[in-house]
Amino acid sequence: MFELFTNKKKKKQLSKESGIERVTIQNINNFAVTEGYKQLRTNLMFLMGANDSNIIEFSSSFAGEGKSVTSANSAIAIAQASQNVLLIDCDLRKPVQHKVFGLKNEMGLSTILGKMSTFENTVNKNAVPNLDVITSGPIPPNPSELFASEKMKKFLETVSQQYDYVVLDTPPINLVTDALELSKYSGGLVLVVRHGVTTYDDIKRSLGAANFVDVNVLGVVLNGVQDAKLAYKKGYKKYGYGKYGYSRYGYGGYDTDNREKKKSKK
Ligand SMILES: Nc1ncnc2c1ncn2[C@@H]1O[C@H](COP(=O)(O)OP(=O)(O)O)[C@@H](O)[C@H]1O
Ligand SMILES: [Mg+2]
Q: How far is the CA of 150 from the centre of ligand 1 (A)?
């Protein structure tokens, strides 16, 4: 059984952490991590196979739990299976995908929705092979309104026809409504929880909110597991949410060792 204990200090620290640059599975040579993502990819592709929509949304309860890292790496893992994937940074509050992939962010989702750029001149083609990325663009004053707009709906409809999979990185569910707003358009939501940080209450609240708007919860990714044995232990546990299961896909904390080393040097 995993411990998902309350760790307020760690939570605070994680939400401020930077260092997201190029933390993709292409740059991290860690067998446990890449295997974890392959497993996640397989599960996602099976789960989405039963769906009409090819849009997968990633979210979590709070900031710093690993939504952006997990959505980026899942998108890469799916692209590595020869699928055409589009990753969209829908976190128009604290966007990071441009940093993850080392891209410019003058244009992105916000400029497309604000009719200041077109998809064609905004998309970053082949950020990695088979994976195109739309960064957030400049932070707009009204993200929720943009997501609720007809333009967003049409945009996602169009891109979902052009790609095999569309992956959305979103803001935290327990802080703003954007992720739930976006779930209207997606085929399913993957909830990212961080080992040792996310509490059962956080998860309950997020799943409760998802349940309220009738989102299809595909499963839960357990991010930051450092125990290799734990990381490989797969399981499926009913989590007391009716139709929602609680799937556990663990993988090792990819750079935790370095992070610890850096800290101890200071
Ligand atoms: N498994 C992990 N091990 C170590 N650091 C991680 C892990 N997952 C995420 N991080 C780091 O934590 C920070 C927050 O991750 P991020 O994906 O931006 O979270 P969110 O999108 O949920 O706010 C980033 O600096 C990221 O590099
Ligand atoms: Mg994020």
A: 32
